[in-house]
């Protein structure tokens, strides 16, 4: 990841990695669990995954990678989808126990990762980064904690009022769990868009400006409704529009990262789904390269006082290295630039509005993985200087 120009990792975590009860089916082979006291009255048995999380964060620190730890699955499920660990109705708000257990997990994580040994990895205010889940680039966060991934509102009794109450309690839990080095708090936009959260502060509904130490996570997918039926041209227009939204100086939108994106798109009526292997299809590899660079540039800040703080691709690798979901596969086969932090490795020029020049004449090599490289042009270096990449991006 580091050699690919990435400077951050986002680690999705199910609550059961910290707090699993004997009746829950998520973990097998639980020999060797240890007790962790998360408050004055509650002991939690921690399954074997937790030490591996600690090790992963330590490895990231050794490599100079920042970390966002994301509560991806909450008790009862916050979205009813497989990524939460439970498919079916949204039961997160069905009782206070689910919320209380989630807050206990957040408290536990904060107490562990606010220790001085993690200072350069998990703690801090947003600086700049961008990159994929399990590998990415951001304005450097140190270690951040994302309170809840992809909550689905209006499912059952889960409303915005419920969500903001949990965000308030979650932010207070993180900030009160340590006397110093509090992790940056990230909240998901619940698919309402970053604009909805303008001037939002979790513990002050009347806030007049975004909170320090708070960032928004928004997910941009063209594989799922309502954006799964767009043409290639419409997708590129949409990406550019997002770029211009996030790059508005002093917009009042909290620091925003695109915490998940991929190269998957919906299939037109007469075409294959892009999840099918396209490594031997030159036209598809050309499209992958354009779509990858368009999103990398769009989600990366190029000036001061912008909302954008970077991105995470989903994912670093997948089962079978599926072409549209594996950053590692894209690197090896040449449709993702070899160094995300170095625009001279990009194939498409970057325009001053923070979008790529989609009209530039580029065609992927005949063979996947051959002839990988960016444009060799002096004007590229000058453009990078004009964009202020060396000034505002900390890679």
TrEMBL record:
It comes from the Eukaryota. The keyword Cell cycle does not apply. Keywords: Glycosidase, Hydrolase. Signal peptide: none annotated. GO terms for biological process: glucan catabolic process. GO terms for cellular component: cell surface; extracellular region. GO terms for molecular function: beta-glucosidase activity. The keyword NADP does not apply. Belongs to the glycosyl hydrolase 5 (cellulase A) family. PANTHER family: GLUCAN ENDO-1,6-BETA-GLUCOSIDASE B, GLYCOSIDE HYDROLASE FAMILY 5 DOMAIN-CONTAINING PROTEIN. This is Glycoside hydrolase family 5 domain-containing protein.
